[in-house]
């Protein structure tokens, strides 16, 4: 959670195998064998079968069919993954932390199987062996994804390239933009925010004292109380990594610690932490664990801003004050209050003001697509409004889990339409960038394939490959 790359939205490699693909719904019983080798990594027949089954299930759910043999397609996707994994090791890409994903997936599989014993019987191995297999495969996938991101990280498109790309699209190739919402909000946090922060700090100080006095350990308390989903199940522990990947207050505190030492309470944008340095840093890599807590409010404390905003909404609806003026006076969102509460993509706005986006489709209200100010419940309030109407107050959380209340005003609904370069520049720019990144990545892949050892069993060389030079 503390990693900068977790905050930023990364590229998701389409060919990366999901954890659920490790086991098919109905396992095909076959004599396993190595069907391909890429660099120093072997690909088993069972892996290809599992991946091919996953592709079929995924496409069936999406209503999409492919002319390509899923076994052939699955094999090539796995070969891409192996190549990227090998190159990531050569380029010393920062090791990914997959512990929380491993435990989450393992618990899901145990639940599905009915018990640990049932899972062991299904997988023909002990649970600890299967955990390591799962960790190895997920680690490989994350390495591969990071390597692909590295390959295209410096690819950019100019406005001229975006225009050329748009002009080359046929009418049927131009994207259809779903219905979009333009809206404003007024945000209020609980008035007891400072009191809640004080309570949180005191809880952490109490935990720190328990650890120092030997009454408990950081790992036990982290599993019990930490709200960091990336490390709590692993006792608050993260694998070694550079300080540059951590938010500055956290990194500053960690850098000052000696092995085994517990920090004072550290405040970051994510909440409050106590940190333990596990061992001596090596080559600038810090191995640590932490406990993260966020302020918690009582029901009465959460109701206070709701009542305040409901009263304000009533005043706005009576035309005693405009929504824009009310936002300037009453909103506690510093990024929007001076702009009439208009919700926009502030992070992008700061570096590219000419590309400010104030239009949001229904899918853009998912947690991973938040911009500054958008919250999980905004869409639920907006769909009940007509343009110009103001919602009742509702509670929500921002991207970092901070409790807040708000009212929203629907400014405009933009109907579904074919994307235009003028009105939907950001969408077209994203498509142009994806196209350019694909070209750059394909060129890189072809070069890497030529320079790496590849063996494919003759039985698996049939079919169509995106990169024909796999066959040597």
Describe the structure.
This protein has 472 residues and is α+β, with helices and mostly antiparallel strands. The protein has 3 domains: 4-156 and 435-470, Triger factor/SurA peptide-binding fold; 180-191 and 298-415, Chitinase A, domain 3; 193-293, Chitinase A, domain 3 (Roll). It contains 15 helices and 13 strands. Strands 9-4-11-10 form a 4-stranded antiparallel β-sheet. Helix 3 (70-90) crosses helix 6 and helix 4 crosses helix 5. The longest helix has 26 residues, at 127-152. The relative contact order is 0.13. Residues 1-30, 347-353 and 367-373 have low confidence and may be disordered.
Strand order of the largest sheet: 9-4-11-10
Radius of gyration, taken over Cα atoms and rounded to an integer in Å? 26 Å
Q: Could you report the average pLDDT, rounded to the nearest whole number?
A: 86
Percentage of helical residues?
40-55%
Supply the number of helical segments.
Answer: 15
Count of the domains: 3
Unreliable stretches: 1-30, 347-353, 367-373
Number of strands: 13
Summarize the main sheet. 4 strands, antiparallel
Return the string of H and E elements: HEEHHHHHHEEHHEHEEEHHHEHEEEHE
Give the class from helix and strand content and strand pairing.
alpha+beta
| CATH topology title of the largest domain | Triger factor/SurA peptide-binding fold
The CATH class label of the largest domain is: Mainly Alpha
CATH architecture of the largest domain: Orthogonal Bundle
Morphology:
globular
Give the end-to-end Cα distance, rounded to a whole number of Å.
43 Å
Please indicate the percent range of residues in DSSP E strands (runs of 2 or more): 5-15%
């Amino acid at each position: 959670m503390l990693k900068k790359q977790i905050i930023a939205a990364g590229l998701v490699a389409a060919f990366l195998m999901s954890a659920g693909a490790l086991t098919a719904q109905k396992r095909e019983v076959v004599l396993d064998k190595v069907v391909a080798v890429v660099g120093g990594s072997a690909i088993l027949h069972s892996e290809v079968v599992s991946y091919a089954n996953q592709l079929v299930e995924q496409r069936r759910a999406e209503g999409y069919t492919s002319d390509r043999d899923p076994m052939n397609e699955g094999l090539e996707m796995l070969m891409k993954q192996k190549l990227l994994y090998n190159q990531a090791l050569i380029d010393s890409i920062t090791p990914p932390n997959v512990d929380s994903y491993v435990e989450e997936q393992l618990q899901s599989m145990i639940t599905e199987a009915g018990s640990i014993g049932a899972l062991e019987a299904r997988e023909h191995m002990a649970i600890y062996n299967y955990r390591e297999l799962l960790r190895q495969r997920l680690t490989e996938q994350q390495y591969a994804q990071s390597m692909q991101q590295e390959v295209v990280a410096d690819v950019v498109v100019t406005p001229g390239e975006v225009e050329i790309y748009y002009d080359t699209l046929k009418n049927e190739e131009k994207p259809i933009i779903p219905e979009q919402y333009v809206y404003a909000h007024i945000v209020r946090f609980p008035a007891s925010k400072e009191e809640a922060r004080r309570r949180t700090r005191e809880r952490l100080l109490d935990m720190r004292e328990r650890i120092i006095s030997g009454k408990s350990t950081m790992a036990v308390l982290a599993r019990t109380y930490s709200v960091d989903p990336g490390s709590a199940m692993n006792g608050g522990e993260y694998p070694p990594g550079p300080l540059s990947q951590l938010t500055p207050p956290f990194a500053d505190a960690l850098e000052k610690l000696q092995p085994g030492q517990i920090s004072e309470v550290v405040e970051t944008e994510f909440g409050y932490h106590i940190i333990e340095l596990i061992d001596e840093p090596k080559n600038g890599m810090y191995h640590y664990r932490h406990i993260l807590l966020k302020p918690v409010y009582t029901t009465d404390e959460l109701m206070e801003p709701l009542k305040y905003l409901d009263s304000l909404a009533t005043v706005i609806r009576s035309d005693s004050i405009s929504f824009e003026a009310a936002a300037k006076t009453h909103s506690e969102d510093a990024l929007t209050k001076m702009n009439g509460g208009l919700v926009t993509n502030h992070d992008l706005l700061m570096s590219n003001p000419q590309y400010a986006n104030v239009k949001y489709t229904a899918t853009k209200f998912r947690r991973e697509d938040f911009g500054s100010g958008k919250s999980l419940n905004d869409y639920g309030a907006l769909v009940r409004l007509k343009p110009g109407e103001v919602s009742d107050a509702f509670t929500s959380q921002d991207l970092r889990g901070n409790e807040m209340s708000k009212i929203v005003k629907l400014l405009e609904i933009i109907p579904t339409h074919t994307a235009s370069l003028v009105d939907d520049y950001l969408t077209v720019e994203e498509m142009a960038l994806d196209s350019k990144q694909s070209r750059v990545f394909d060129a890189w892949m072809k070069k890497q394939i030529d320079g790496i050892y590849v063996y494919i069993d003759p039985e698996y060389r049939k079919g169509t490959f995106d990169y024909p030079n796999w066959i040597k």
